[in-house]
């Protein structure tokens, strides 16, 4: 769909390109929702806007950071457990079909609840057990995206079988503010777990309409609010206790590694000096084992 076609849509109309992943019909891959006057957005190429906000439209790297508290949830009671400081490195490679490949490496630094000190051990408040805290990067993993930004879902993650669905919700545009939300559900199967490790990721990305619709922009400025609901992680030794993990984090996309949070870069250099010394080359390392 070209720009002229999109500009002809009424306020309540959306792009209706749909995708199906794993036999599950999902919402439109990219859609336009207007809550402001027509003059706010003008002609919008929704796929390009999403790609600029989430990734970039040309070849190169992007870097995301997140920080927030991980909670244990039993019933409706939330117990703060620790703070996660997360850094993600991404390499974007456009493909001939109009899509792209995204290679990603995620690295989580575990801090105390106040977010001040890194943890080498953690006391489980439910069991009283003192447990070691390890550094276990996820990836590198390569995911292919089609021309409409829908994912070709991989069936493996770090040696574990993966099932996943994803959908991109219609963006909300108010004045110059653009909010785009994504929902990803994944089930990771590992032999040592009786049940799959279930992940529900809820992300809302925020950017500027003027920036995202500027043809000169290839990497849009973006912030993110991220929430996650998962099962207990295996290293916590929670067994079959009822409950789950919930997190609330916020962060931002930056164009260079040296713009990542100084604390995260400093701690990464201690835990994985080879990655900190050449982060872009780390995207070509063998994938680490998924140990959640």
Describe the structure.
- With 292 residues, the chain is mainly beta.
- The protein has 5 helices and 17 strands.
- The strands form 3 sheets. Strands 3, 4, 5, 6, 9, 10, 11, 12, 13, 14, 15, 16 and 17 form a 13-stranded mixed beta sheet that branches. Strands 1-2 form a two-stranded antiparallel sheet. It has a two-stranded antiparallel ribbon with strand order 7-8.
- The longest helix is centred in the C-terminal third of the chain and has 10 residues, at 262-271.
- The radius of gyration is 20 Å and the shape is globular.
- The termini are far apart.
- 26% of the residues are buried.
SSE blueprint:
Elements: H1 3-7, E1 20-21, E2 24-25, E3 33-34, H2 46-54, E4 60-74, E5 77-94, E6 100-111, E7 121-123, E8 130-132, E9 138-145, E10 151-152, E11 156-157, E12 160-168, E13 172-174, E14 177-189, E15 197-208, H3 209-212, E16 223-230, E17 244-254, H4 262-271, H5 273-277
Parallel strand pairs: 3-13
Antiparallel strand pairs: 1-2, 4-5, 4-17, 5-6, 6-9, 7-8, 9-10, 11-12, 12-14, 13-14, 14-15, 15-16, 16-17
Beginning-to-end CA distance, first to last residue: 41 Å
The total count of helices amounts to 5
Report the oligomer. single chain
Proportion of strand residues: 35-45%
Apparent shape: globular
Succession of helices and strands: HEEEHEEEEEEEEEEEEHEEHH
Helix content percent band: 10-25%
Number of β-strand runs: 17
Which value, in Å, is the CA radius of gyration?
20 Å
Low-confidence stretches: 1-42
Mean pLDDT over all positions: 82
Largest sheet: 13 strands, mixed
Which structural class matches the secondary elements?
Answer: mainly beta
